[in-house]
Each structure stands twice: as structure tokens, then as C-alpha cells.
């Protein structure tokens, strides 16, 4: 549906031009997913190297290809490309329209208000966005786009504005991963869509295992994971210079670092003063209370076109290997062009395997309680 990429440099000096290049390159690595518009959010021109809150957030969005967005970035006279930023967080996104036509106003990032207090990029579908939208409109919040995503920053702003005056409840977006920035906080939330975090530092990481921090008290269980006890270490970094890369696909991270952390459903990743921590609202029975830093087993060349004329041609010639790697008792869900290809190959697969083939649209399957069995392929 779309692609997410974000870059945070903490105590690592980077010019605004270098930051733009990193964000654009990340989006280019995700272009193979298909999209109709692209956009980024970066710190505005009043950025201070000592106070991360002392600036506005600048949104730059464009219909069409990432190349058009790249050209648009260098037309912003108010942004000094040679300005060196010691600490900065930028988010970038490619959108495939699901709610509302392809346009600049419907493209991501979306904002909470005209002051850009909170900005969000999102991959997925908010199934109850109409109810949320109506609720927020009755409370004076104005919407600019036709998208479901816009309810996220508006709802975050509502919760933030009423954090002391009203009793509010946290919510779970239906099938989503998103990155948000605002009011000095940078966070990512995952539910149903893939998201991973790359870590790069000239210093050795404090730990390869980050304990999940739960809301409220919980009983400390015996360490059964054969891992070092890291109960006193809640981050891979102690506030020294570090860079973080957030992406919906490893292909956007591998050229920067091979050290990554895979987020799981309902995980919330927060970066405060360079320290990454993982949070969850509740502890479920049997779930792993630790998130491990892993080493990506892939090379940059694997995601490049190589000698092929297009990514489509590359995918066609890699199909034998791809089929072998994926047909291991997994059930795959797709939307858009993925569904079309499944419809086109359904009859051939049924003839070759003598098994019934069911094609499901991912967004439709999300709202059903369809039984899935171990021997389903």
C-alpha cells in the first residue's frame, strides 16, 4: 500500500541537505511497492542545536514520483541546505491512495493542526475512522483531507489537549504502523503492518536485548531466554551520539546499518534524548518480554535492479527462488496489484496442485473472523 521511512540523528552533525538525501534515498528503496504521491516532514528553519522543541515542523508533499518530491525540496528558499543540525528527526512516506484521490492534500505526512503540533505517517487502514472523524469534528477539530490517517494526529492532539481535564482512554488503530513527531517526542507504533528500526553508532551498543516496559506494575519473571540480565538497561544507547532508521522494509535500512530491531504488534518505540525504549500497554501470557537487536542477513545488491531493466523483470526471474522461500506453511494477504495477480494465477495453481485456491482482499479479511488452520498454505 505504501512505504514508511524515518531518520533520527542524535548528537551526530548532519547538514539539512544530507538529511534530505537520506530521507529521499529511503523512499527510493521503497518505490518498488507502488505509490502515487510522496512527502516528508522535517524541522523548520528556526531549529536550535540545544533545544529540540525550539522550531516548527515543515511539511513538503508532492503528487507523483519521489523524483518530483526531491526536486521540490530544493525549491524551499526558507530552508538553508547547508545548516548543520546536531539533532534532528525527519519522517518520509510514499502513499498508495485508499481513502481519497491521489493529491497533495491527501498525501502524508498528516498534521494535527495548522501549527503542526503533531505530524504522522501511516501504513494501513483505520477501520473506524469515520466514527473518530465525526467525534473529533463535534469537538472543533477541522479536517483537511479525505484520508483515514488524518484522524491519528487529530486524536493524539485531542488526547494531549485533554490529558489533565478529562478522563481519556488509549486506543488501538486497526491494522497500522505509524511514526509520529511532536511536542518533543518521537515515537512509532505497530499493529498489523511491518516496521523495523535500524541502529548505527560509533560506540558499542549497551545491550542487544531491550526489555519491554509495560504500563503499570508486573511480576518480574525468571529469565528463561538464556540472555544476559538487562533489567537495568532499557535502551541500546546511553545518550551518546547515535542514528536511528525506521522503515517498513529492510531494503531502506541495509545500506546504513545491519543492526535492526523488529517491532511486534502493539509495540510502541520511543526515542528520548537519544535513548530508544520499547513500551506496551499490557503483558500477555507467554509473550517475549525482550526485543533483540538482530543482524540483517542481506546485501545491498539483493535489493538493487542489477542487470535487469526494471524491478518487475527482476521479480519475474527471481520467482523460482521466491516461491521456494515463501511456501512454508504461510498464508499471504495482499491488496491492489497483489490481488490482481492472484486472480490471474488461481486457475493454474488449482490445476497444478489439485487444491482449492481462495483469494482474499487484505482490507476485507481484516474485519472477518475467518478460521485459519495449520495445514492452510
UniProtKB/TrEMBL annotation:
EC number: 2.6.1.16
Occurrences of domain Glutamine amidotransferase type-2 (ranges): 2-274
Keywords recorded for this protein, A-Z: Glutamine amidotransferase, Transferase
GO molecular function, one term: carbohydrate derivative binding
GO biological process, one term: UDP-N-acetylglucosamine metabolic process
Coiled-coil residues: none
Keyword Transferase: yes
UniProt-listed InterPro entries: GATase_2_dom, GFAT_N, Ntn_hydrolases_N, SIS_dom_sf
Catalytic reaction equation(s): D-fructose 6-phosphate + L-glutamine = D-glucosamine 6-phosphate + L-glutamate
PROSITE patterns: GATASE_TYPE_2 (PS51278)
Domain of life, source organism: Eukaryota
Matching PANTHER family: GLUCOSAMINE--FRUCTOSE-6-PHOSPHATE AMINOTRANSFERASE, ISOMERIZING, GLUTAMINE--FRUCTOSE-6-PHOSPHATE AMINOTRANSFERASE [ISOMERIZING] 2
Protein name from the UniProt record: glutamine--fructose-6-phosphate transaminase (isomerizing)
